[in-house]
């Protein structure tokens, strides 16, 4: 009789623990889905900005130097300018379709699309890293040496992460492929995240705070590394928490992931308002 009630008690405890882990996992997934919706909106806003400011502006007679934020673009010509366009314009494709690689339903039901979109993403990602490294160190598109180190490391890590993501896909190690592909995605999008973090930082501090015009202030340097290291750390936290059996660590990870989503939201709103909308408007008004 006593043994039966002890067994019943432990079964009830197990059921409660199971339910609580299930709830925590659902909250974790919600945090990632919230981030995804915010990121997708921000990525498409960035793509719209690239297409209007770097492509459409050329057809409506706007001087590129008057509408793009980068000073180096204003002085560039010949091969360097061609490289600059080759660097920037494919970013529109990456921003429009890159996110779709993360949607499980598309991965499972439209495999050919996932495969081809992935191949294009990886190829353009490597090309973006190499042309970026050339622009920065070959064509002299940099405001300062120290301020360029974060994006330089980013340019070195992109081909490394893509190499592993591609290799694991070919070898059908899809668990490892997904992990490296997510890191490739975050590294390739660091240029977008940097703009989010920089504008978000300005918004939260109501102006510059540790920033300067050559982007080598302490805050600029911190953000130039954080724009890929922080999202990559959050991705690792997510992968780790998916393996947890108890609810407590999953709840902790979920709270951190929600903070990550909030930072992305502040960044998207700030970059859209301060960086992209005014330039998009300039082009639209010239149409
Ligand atoms: C695949 C990853 C990358 C993508 C998708 C990408 C995309 C872009 C885009 C869209 C712009 C124009 C930004 C704007 O108007 O606000 C830009 C500018 C620039 N990128 Fe990249 N980029 C990538 C990686 C890199 C790397 C690794 C470097 C250098 C090591 C780099 C160096 C530059 C430079 C020098 C500029 C122009 C000046 C500036 O805004 O700082 N990019 N990139």
From TrEMBL:
The UniProt record lists the keyword Transmembrane helix: yes
Signal peptide: none
Transmembrane segments: 35-61, 81-99, 120-140, 146-166, 178-201, 221-239, 251-277
Keywords: Membrane, Transmembrane, Transmembrane helix
Keyword Plastid belongs to the record: no
Matching InterPro entries: DUF2306_membrane
Highest taxon of the lineage: Bacteria
Name of the molecule in the record: DUF2306 domain-containing protein
The organism's taxonomic lineage, starting at the top: Bacteria, Pseudomonadati, Pseudomonadota, Gammaproteobacteria, Alteromonadales
């Amino acid at each position: 009789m006593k043994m039966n009630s002890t067994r019943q008690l432990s079964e009830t405890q197990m059921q409660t623990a199971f339910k609580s882990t299930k709830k925590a996992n659902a909250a974790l997934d919600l945090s990632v889905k919230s981030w995804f919706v915010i990121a997708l909106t921000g990525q498409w806003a960035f793509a719209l900005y690239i297409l209007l400011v770097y492509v459409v502006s050329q057809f409506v007679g706007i001087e590129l130097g008057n509408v793009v934020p980068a000073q180096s673009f204003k002085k560039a010509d010949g091969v360097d300018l061609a490289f600059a366009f080759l660097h920037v314009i494919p970013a529109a494709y990456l921003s429009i379709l890159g996110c779709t690689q993360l949607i499980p339903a598309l991965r499972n039901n439209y495999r050919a699309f996932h495969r081809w979109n992935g191949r294009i993403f990886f190829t353009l990602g490597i090309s973006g890293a190499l042309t970026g490294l050339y622009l920065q160190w070959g064509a002299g598109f940099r405001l300062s040496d120290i301020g360029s180190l974060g994006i330089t490391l980013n340019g070195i890590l992109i081909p490394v992460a893509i190499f592993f993501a591609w290799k694991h896909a070919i070898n059908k190690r899809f668990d490892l492929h997904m992990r490296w592909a997510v890191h490739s995605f975050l590294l390739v999008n660091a240029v977008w995240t940097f703009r989010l973090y920089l504008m978000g930082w300005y918004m939260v501090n109501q102006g510059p705070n540790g920033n300067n015009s050559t982007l080598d202030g302490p805050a600029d340097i911190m953000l130039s590394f954080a724009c890929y290291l922080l999202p990559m750390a959050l991705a690792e936290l997510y992968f780790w928490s998916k393996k947890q059996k108890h609810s407590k660590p999953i709840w902790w990870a979920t709270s951190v992931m929600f903070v990550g989503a909030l930072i992305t939201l502040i960044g998207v709103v700030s970059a859209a308002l301060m960086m992209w909308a005014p330039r998009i408007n300039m082009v639209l008004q010239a149409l």
